[in-house]
Amino acid sequence: MNKTGFFFHADCSLHEMGFGHPESPYRLAAIEQRLQDSGVMAALLRREAPQAPIADLELAHGRMHIASLRGLTDGLRDEMQAGGPKHAQIDPDTRINVHTWDAALRAAGAALAATDAVMAGELDNAFCAVRPPGHHACRDKAMGFCFFNNVAVAALYALERHGLQRVAIIDFDVHHGNGTEDIVAGDARILMASFFQHPFYPFGGTTSTAGNLLNVPVPARTAGDAIRALVSDTWLPRLEAFQPELILVSAGFDAHREDDLGQMALVEADYAWITQQLMEVAARHAKGRLVSCLEGGYKLDALARSVEAHVRVLAGL
Ligand SMILES: [Zn+2]
């Protein structure tokens, strides 16, 4: 059995983007419930996420972007006290409420604290059950339900603050991690590997020429056998050659066949298999160090089952 951290914070459930929005607090509740009911939670080391320090967010984001989210939150609070609306719109899919700033700091803070814990050897690996997600957040722009890029912040933090030389970011969300690409493209210390449904939101990922990106577009309806072949044939050889000292995972579960926000056809066993492959790379090159952060996944039952499958492998259950 591994020492696997489960990072969370109550603030992450206070951020919400309006009635019926798929990126809802119910997602975290469904994950918690499933891990409790299945007995998996008892095997995890629960850690409350701290707030990310602003100086660490600035490793991946511009000062104006950070200040603008804080300013929007303060403005919204003032307006609400004057009887105004509960939300402020960022893009057609993305809104803030008065708790978004705190939730976003906790989500990034979870990734940082988990990185500290695996670097210290206090944990073998960790899963951050946090929201808002991060992989669409660009250096200077919030979009696609994301405000701060939790995984990119953690990657740069591991390089700058822990002195690592090579960090891998793996993204198995159904959507292309355009924000992560925006922040890490051209940084040879980071290898980003992903697959993503294409053509699909956010309609990029196929044109970058940066040598540190291995983002593989796949058509709608792609299922587990094709994804396992893709991982074996493309990701794993690149990871083996790169020899990451830490693996960060943008763990989105919206490529599940039951998820309505994507049209791919993965199942729980595929997430378990991918997780196992990543852990073997981490064992060979990174002393097992792996930090996984929740991204998408919107069909609550499929999300909860997929997270359970992912975390079971992390914990060695
Ligand atoms: Zn997604």
From TrEMBL:
CDD domains per UniProt: HDAC_classII_2
Gene Ontology BP term (one): epigenetic regulation of gene expression
Histone deacetylase domain: residues covered: 21-314
Pfam families assigned to the protein according to its UniProt record, in alphabetical order: Hist_deacetyl (PF00850)
Domain of life, per lineage: Bacteria
Name recorded for this polypeptide: Deacetylase
Family to which the UniProt record says this protein belongs: Belongs to the histone deacetylase family.
Signal sequence residues: none
InterPro entries: HDACs, His_deacetylse_dom, His_deacetylse_dom_sf, Ureohydrolase_dom_sf
PANTHER family, per database record: HISTONE DEACETYLASE HDAC1, HISTONE DEACETYLASE HDAC1-RELATED
A single GO molecular function term of this UniProt record: histone deacetylase activity
